[in-house]
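Retry 2 of 3 after timeout on previous attempt. Resubmitting structure tokens to design endpoint.
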């Protein structure tokens, strides 16, 4: 695969972003600036037991959301699609909030919120898969409409849970809904689905390039379109479910990052997917670092900051696309 100078420089910059963003997250926090190699014993505990796991969790979450966003935009052939458009975030949120609410009601100290969120995303995947399958040919419109309806239904359930939930758990539930890495813990099990999912979609990069041209074009070029589309959908759903299980509902990463990377390196998924993963991870690490230090000692949910950045940036990208088409 030929690589032009621009792609090479962007790739080198993204590779450098990984260690630089992690170093920033480990050094800077609500307790002030701490250089990891000059830290005292107490400071070292803070850096390696709190900041380091949170930075890794943020990087993995951002990478998963960015790659899932790329896949959703291929799946629906819509640049406005993001990992939450099919109700995955809503399903994960309902299961997680039910766990938090029941824990507050029953006085349970520890609830496996990440596991519950992941199960919620899987349940939503199955529901949308079954309802949207139908009897006719593959239809992205059917999948999109089914996902939107399921998302609206989950939204109503979330409102009900928040209204009826115990007051003691309300703050935690709201922070989780806004996207929060405060309680994220490092787990080696994350690496299994992360590497399997990313490797699978990268090996399918050529198919993604073909499918982005349309179902008819893909069929003419020998792609098994129905099987490929469901494959992309399931992988994107699982990546999103894992991301939501780690950090809650963080928006705009899966929408904005693929757009920015397409502007910089083009739409070839052989380079777009790894570029989106590295930039999405680095972006969320930096955003989370800012969110926990901007109003120190109080911490903002990182989802609030990504929304504040994502909304105007998305409007700029949308305006640019309209001018190009015009």
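Retry 2 succeeded. Sequence:
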């Amino acid at each position: 695969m030929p690589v032009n100078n621009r792609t090479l420089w962007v790739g080198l910059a993204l590779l450098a972003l990984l260690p630089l963003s992690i170093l920033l997250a480990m050094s800077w926090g609500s307790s002030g600036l701490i250089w990891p190699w000059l830290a005292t014993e107490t400071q070292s505990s803070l850096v390696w037991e709190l900041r380091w796991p949170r930075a890794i969790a943020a990087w993995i979450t951002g990478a998963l959301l960015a790659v899932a966003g790329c896949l959703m935009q291929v799946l629906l052939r819509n640049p406005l699609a993001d990992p939450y458009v099919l109700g995955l975030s809503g399903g994960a949120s309902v299961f997680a909030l039910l766990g938090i609410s029941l824990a507050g009601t029953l006085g349970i100290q520890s609830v496996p919120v990440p596991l519950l969120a992941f199960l919620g995303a899987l349940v939503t995947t199955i529901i949308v898969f079954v309802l949207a399958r139908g009897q006719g040919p593959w239809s992205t419109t059917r999948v999109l409409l089914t996902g939107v309806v399921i998302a609206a239904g989950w939204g109503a359930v979330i409102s009900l849970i928040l209204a009826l939930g115990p007051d003691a758990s309300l703050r935690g539930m709201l922070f989780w809904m806004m996207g929060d890495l405060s309680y994220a813990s490092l787990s080696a099990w994350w690496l299994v689905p992360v590497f399997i999912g990313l490797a699978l979609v990268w090996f399918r990069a050529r198919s993604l390039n073909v499918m982005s041209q349309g179902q008819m074009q893909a069929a003419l070029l020998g792609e098994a379109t129905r099987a490929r589309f469901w494959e992309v959908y399931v992988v994107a759903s699982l990546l999103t479910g894992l991301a939501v299980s780690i950090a809650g509902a963080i928006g705009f990463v899966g929408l904005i990052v693929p757009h920015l990377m397409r502007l910089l390196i083009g739409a070839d998924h052989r380079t777009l997917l790894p570029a989106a993963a590295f930039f999405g991870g680095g972006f969320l690490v930096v955003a989370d670092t800012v969110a926990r230090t901007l109003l120190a000692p109080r911490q903002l949910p990182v989802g609030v900051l990504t929304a504040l950045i994502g909304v105007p940036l998305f409007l700029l990208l949308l305006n640019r696309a309209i001018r190009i088409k015009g």
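Attempt log closed. The first helix runs from residue 5 to 27.
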